[in-house]
Amino acid sequence: MQLQIAPSILAADFLNLEKDIRILDEVADIIHLDVMDGTLVPNISFGFPVIEPIAKIASKPLDAHLMIVHPEKYFERFASCGIDMLSFHLEAARRDGTDPCELLAAIRRLGMKAGLVFNPDIPLENVYPYIGSADYLVLMSVYAGFGGQSFIEESYSRLAALKREVSLRNPQCLLEVDGGVTPSNSARLRSLGADILVAGSSVFLSGDPRGTIAALRCD
Ligand code: DX5
Ligand code: ZN
User: Fold this and answer.
1) Pocket of ligand 1 contains residue 178 by CB under 6 Å
2) Is-contact 9 36, C-beta < 8 A?
3) Could you report the per-residue pLDDT of 42-56, keeping only the tens digit for each?
């Protein structure tokens, strides 16, 4: 499967968001939307008033990354505003006492692809039981909450180990890597088994989003 690039709009120009969305709609594969609640993660980003108008003009799949507690409260609303891929944190389910398998199934019943995200300090063994129930896994290569952080080097070996386990348990499950992704690490991530790369700062702070997205593809 070809590598897909999912720019995160967290680093976009929010005063001219339409311009950036139109660029992504032309050259990206997926548009990544980072939703933060200030409780699961120590930062607040944006919610439906920003996402709904984006969904109206974007034709590429929308991937919402929920960094919120009680994510299930909003699954229907994300489905009805046109989100295609919806992920929540394993840490959120654990904190709320909900079963990640049930949350993944609920997302799928609403017609969206279901993703499970986990931070760099979560042992991979804690993720393995859910591989069979997920359409995609999001390996955080920085701690969720802020754009612009440096890629954590241990993420390479975590990705390789996760890829091996996914091949055994559910080869259809895609692997997404999120955080600190740049054109200088994308080829290695692809070779270790990443299917989707999320990149915010490297795309939007480069001054050349189109060129950076092309470079991330490492074709
Ligand atoms: C971090 C977010 C990422 C972030 C990526 O909590 O999940 O999607 O926006 O941004 P960069 O590419 O700047 O690390
Ligand atoms: Zn994200």
Assistant:
1) yes
2) no
3) 999 999 999 999 999
- pTM of the model as a whole: 0.98
pLDDT grade for 218, boundaries at 50, 70 and 90:
confident
Residue 114: strand pairing partners: 86
29, 84, 178, 195: which one is catalytic?
178
* Distance between CA atoms of residues 66 and 60, nearest Å: 19
- List, in order, residues 6 or more apart from 105 with CB less than 8 Å away: 114, 133
pLDDT in tens, 169-190: 999 999 999 999 999 999 999 9
Contact between residue 193 and residue 163 where contact means Cβ atoms under 8 Å apart: yes
Catalytic: 37? no
Note whether 103 and 95 are within 8 A (CB).
no
Q: Is 155 in the pocket of ligand 1 (CB under 6 A)?
A: no
For residue 66 and ligand 1, the question of a CB distance below 6 A is answered with no
